[in-house]
């Protein structure tokens, strides 16, 4: 795990330029949207006054084992809110920008075996631009629009059959609420339901529908607020889950840090107390699995070297103390995860860390390192499912990191808050957080996208 991260740590930086180009392309796309499908005058005034930022964002989708199965991709909430009651043509242009964003981000390569859910108007399903997407990774979710122009059922079914023949999969909303798509049940692959409207009776009814009419469909639950709702939907037979529950905190007061984390933390403590390289090597050698992992990673990452590294001391010298510290911190975040939900929380933490580091690109290297660690450790209690104080106790953090994580104070807290704001896709929240950091919302959203693409790349 994280072999690509280790390569990046050693200096094989993966380029962020495509993300920047894609973000700029989004801006141009929305300029086209506003020009070709103008909104009402008052809406345009609001868009310009509020400087709505329109960049690609995502929400994680977990499977029943709480592993990351995919993502729902969308543009930032500010854009969606302003077009929600607009014409069908505006919704088409919005969908076009979303599709182009995914294509430009090379999303097929980044996803691997994961899938991407995208919501588009029912009348957009016939748009030629969909052919640019990696069909095997994409699940299309048609949405209704009140304006005339929706395809009739025969044409809609024909279009969907053609898309499925290309490899696309189909997701429809709860057929007990959105009855217009109920005839598509026999060919649908997923049915999504908002958690707020699900109770035991509706869940059993949906299970019956799936069993009788849509035997190949899996149930996707959206907007799950807590782990209790996840468990309820799990018992009802849901297959996929998304919502705030993924990074929510629970009462873990009775839990202790695991043995693997304790061993790595001991090495961190000695490292931060300026232990000699031979002492650190000795501690690493006490953990054969950790030693082998270090040698495997460093030989894979340092493939330009004339010969492989077989000595722990040599590996530590090559890596250097600061990079060793960052790698050990990452190991702490993954060593004793209580369940697979931790991997989703860890990905979110990686995005936060990388975004904060990118926002500090003009600062000294030591400060960029600090910013990365703040983001990475901001969810360590959720990843390990232990109280925050216990998770941080042996990591020898500097006072600014400690203040940001434990008390939400200090000079690093505003940048952490901005990284968190970008996860909620709330344009106003991002604008306010960016203002407190003295940067533009556009810059914040661009860094967030770059960080997201980076985090998807570095995880094997």
Question: Would you kindly provide a written description of the structure presented here, covering whatever features stand out?
Answer:
The protein is an alpha/beta fold. The protein folds into two domains: about 220 residues, EAL domain (TIM Barrel, Alpha-Beta Barrel); about 200 residues, Hypothetical protein af1432. Helices cover about 55% and strands about 10% of the residues. It contains 22 helices and eight strands. Strands 1-2-3-4-5-6-7-8 form an eight-stranded mixed β-sheet. Strand 7, helix 9 and strand 8 form a beta-alpha-beta unit. About 5% of the residues have low confidence.
Q: What class do helices, strands and sheet pairing give? A: alpha/beta
Which stretches of 5+ consecutive residues score pLDDT under 50? 33-52
Rg, alpha carbons: 24 Å
Sum up the overall morphology in one term.
Answer: elongated
Largest beta-sheet details: 8 strands, mixed
Quickly count the domains. 2
Q: Roughly how many Å apart are the termini? A: 6 Å
Q: Would you state the CATH class of the largest domain? A: Alpha Beta
Number of helices: 22
**CATH architectural name of the largest domain:** Alpha-Beta Barrel
Could you give me the name of the CATH homologous superfamily of the largest domain?
EAL domain
**Secondary-structure element order, as H and E?**
HHHEEHHHEEHEEHEHEHHHHHHHHHHHHH
**CATH fold label of the largest domain:** TIM Barrel
Which strand-content bin applies to the residues?
Answer: 5-15%
Helix content percent band: 40-55%
Mean pLDDT figure: 83
């Amino acid at each position: 795990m994280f072999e690509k991260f280790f390569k990046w740590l050693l200096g094989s930086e993966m380029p962020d330029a495509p993300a920047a180009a894609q973000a700029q392309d989004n801006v141009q796309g929305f300029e086209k949207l506003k020009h070709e499908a103008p909104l009402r005058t008052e809406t345009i005034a609001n868009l310009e006054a509020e400087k709505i930022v329109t960049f690609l964002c995502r929400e994680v989708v977990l499977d029943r084992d709480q592993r990351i199965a995919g993502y729902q991709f969308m543009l930032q909430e500010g854009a969606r809110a302003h077009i929600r009651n607009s014409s069908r043509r505006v919704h088409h242009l919005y969908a076009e920008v979303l599709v182009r964003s995914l294509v430009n981000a090379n999303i097929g390569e980044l996803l691997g075996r994961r899938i991407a859910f995208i919501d588009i108007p029912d009348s957009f399903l016939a748009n030629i631009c969909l052919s640019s997407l990696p069909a095997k990774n994409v699940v299309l979710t048609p949405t209704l629009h009140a304006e005339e122009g929706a395809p009739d059922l025969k044409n809609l079914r024909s279009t969907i059959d053609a898309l499925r023949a290309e490899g696309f999969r189909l997701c429809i909303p709860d057929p007990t609420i959105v009855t217009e798509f109920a005839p598509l049940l026999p060919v649908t692959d997923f049915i999504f339901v908002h958690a707020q409207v699900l109770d035991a009776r509706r869940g059993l009814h949906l299970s019956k529908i799936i069993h009788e009419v849509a035997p190949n469909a899996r149930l996707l639950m959206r907007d799950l607020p807590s782990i209790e709702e996840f468990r309820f939907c799990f018992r009802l037979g849901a297959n996929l889950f998304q919502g705030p529950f993924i990074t929510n905190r629970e009462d873990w007061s009775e839990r202790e840090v695991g043995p693997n984390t304790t061993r790595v933390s001991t090495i961190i403590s000695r490292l931060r107390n300026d232990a000699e390289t031979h002492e650190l090597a000795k501690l690493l050698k006490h953990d054969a699995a950790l030693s082998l992992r270090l040698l495997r990673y460093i030989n894979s990452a340092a493939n330009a070297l004339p010969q492989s590294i077989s000595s722990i001391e040599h590996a530590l010298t090559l890596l250097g103390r600061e990079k060793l510290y960052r790698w050990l911190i990452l190991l702490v975040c993954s060593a004793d995860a209580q369940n697979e939900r931790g991997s989703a929380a860890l990905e979110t933490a990686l995005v936060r860390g990388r975004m904060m580091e990118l926002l500090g690109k003009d600062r000294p290297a030591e400060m960029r390192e600090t910013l990365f660690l703040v983001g990475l450790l901001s969810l360590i209690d959720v990843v390990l499912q232990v109280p925050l104080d216990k998770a941080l106790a042996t990591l020898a953090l500097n006072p600014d990191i400690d203040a940001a994580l434990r008390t939400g104070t200090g000079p690093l807290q505003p940048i952490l808050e901005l990284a968190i704001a970008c996860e909620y896709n709330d344009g106003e929240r991002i604008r306010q957080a960016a203002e407190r950091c003295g940067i533009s919302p556009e810059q914040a959203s661009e860094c967030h996208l770059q960080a997201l693409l980076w985090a998807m790349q570095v995880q094997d």
